[in-house]
Specification:
CATH superfamily of the domain at 53-321: Metal-dependent hydrolases
Order of helices and strands: EEEEEHHEHEHEHEHHHEHEHHEHHHEE
CATH class of the domain at 53-321: Alpha Beta
Number of strands: 14
Oligomer: single chain
Strand content: 15-25%
Number of helices: 14
Distance between the termini: 14 Å
CATH architecture of the domain at 53-321: Alpha-Beta Barrel
Structural class: alpha/beta
Helix content: 25-40%
Length: 393
């Protein structure tokens, strides 16, 4: 039996403009049967209907770190807090908190997550949840001699994920937590799966480490007796591209997600486009503000036509996992970006990165993206500081 809901605005994301006074018709399992303009006189609800969100970068297993971190410490200070606090909870506690937050994600309208895992505590929840997840099994290791052992360990974790029926594969973390050998080995494993996620250019401290071996992050590594990446005189993104080239020659056709991109510059974009035909760019604005009060160069990214995705990062660097809060932030700092484009970042582009665009990302006949009601819009259907989201289907 089909159902129908009509609203002031319907952002199908199949076009740049919303349908004003539109409807979405769907069947019992949420498959879209039709979308169009509501007949004259049909009652419509206040707000906008949008497809379910895709959280393109999250660390659900860090939910036990909610409100435990100091803000504004910079990246080096944030890493110190992670090392100090990440292991306070048992796997049972971590799993229960993951369940609570994943339930909230679903209720708030998230239909899929590109999630980072370092252990199996989130796997039981992911198996049961209606939220689709692709899990990136992130690896760390600054010492070259540890590379083989680290990769053997993450392969075992991948086997556990497969037992739960979860799409999961190894992925590198970042330039500053990995030896060159491990960065290439984990990248090779990610490319093998078809998907790779990488923390890229999250802070100036990261850039300083690679450019000339200076700054707070480099100093922290030295004090801890860790090897640091080689000083290259180039950006951390270009260093990553070099490590990928050590695996196999570019171009790389796999879906690669570069996360954060706070210090991204034009020559980095040019280099990435040349090497990565299917590159996506995740931004996590509230996390960037939380850690170092910075934001990515959104207008530069738009000027270059980049496939921007939106994520929340973790509860160690965010007060919530609320995609609407991220959208409100972007609307405040970048008011020139149309609301339809913001919704595309929060849904359609993330679905494309995950290879799920046949099901998720737009309100179109035959798809099952979930239907989300966004309220608190202005008179032109735009996001405001009072906008909120809730799942309808």
């Amino acid at each position: 039996m089909s159902k129908r809901i009509s609203a002031e605005y319907v952002y199908t994301l199949e076009s740049d403009e919303p349908i004003i006074r539109g409807y979405v018709e769907y069947d019992e399992d949420g498959t879209i049967l039709g979308v169009g303009k509501s007949p004259e006189g049909e009652e419509v609800i206040e707000g906008a209907l949008v497809p379910g969100f895709v959280n393109a970068h999250c660390h659900l297993e860090l939910s036990h770190l909610h409100r435990k971190f100091r803000k504004g410490t910079g990246m080096a200070g944030f890493i110190d807090q992670i090392n100090e606090l990440r292991d306070w909870a048992s796997d049972e506690v971590k799993t229960e908190l993951v369940r609570q937050w994943m339930d909230k994600l679903w209720k708030d309208g998230v239909s899929a997550v590109a999630d980072i895992s370092n252990d199996a505590s989130s796997f039981p929840v992911k198996k049961e949840s209606p939220v689709y997840t692709r899990t990136f099994l992130e690896v760390f290791g600054t010492e070259p001699q540890d590379c083989d052992d680290v990769m053997a360990s993450v392969r075992k974790l991948q086997d556990v994920a497969r037992e739960y029926g979860i799409d999961a594969a190894p992925t590198p973390h970042s330039c500053y937590t990995m030896s060159p050998q491990l960065l290439s080995a984990s990248s090779a494993a990610g490319l093998e799966s078809g998907w790779l996620s990488y923390h890229s250019q999250e802070s100036q401290e990261e850039e300083d480490l690679l450019m000339d071996g200076t700054g707070a992050m480099a100093e922290n590594r030295r004090k801890a007796g860790m090897s640091t990446p080689p000083v290259t005189g180039q950006s951390s993104l270009k260093y990553f591209l070099d490590r990928l080239a050590a695996v196999k020659p570019a171009p790389h056709q796999e879906h690669i997600l570069l996360v954060h991109n706070v210090t991204l510059k034009q020559d980095d974009i040019d280099a990435a486009k040349k090497s990565l035909p299917n590159v996506f760019w995740a931004i996590c604005p509230l996390s960037n503000i939380f850690i170092h009060n910075a934001l990515p160069p959104v207008q530069l990214m738009r000027d270059n036509g980049l496939e921007i995705c939106l994520g929340t990062d973790s509860l160690s660097s965010n007060d919530d996992l609320d995609m609407m809060a991220e959208l409100r932030c972007l609307r405040e700092y970048f008011p020139q970006v149309p609301t339809s484009e913001l919704f595309r970042w929060a849904s359609a582009n993330g679905a494309k990165f995950l290879g799920r665009q046949d099901v998720l990302g737009t309100l179109a006949e035959g798809k099952r993206p979930g239907i989300v009601l966004v309220t608190g819009l202005d008179g032109n259907g735009n996001i405001t500081g009072g906008s909120r989201s809730e799942r309808i289907v």
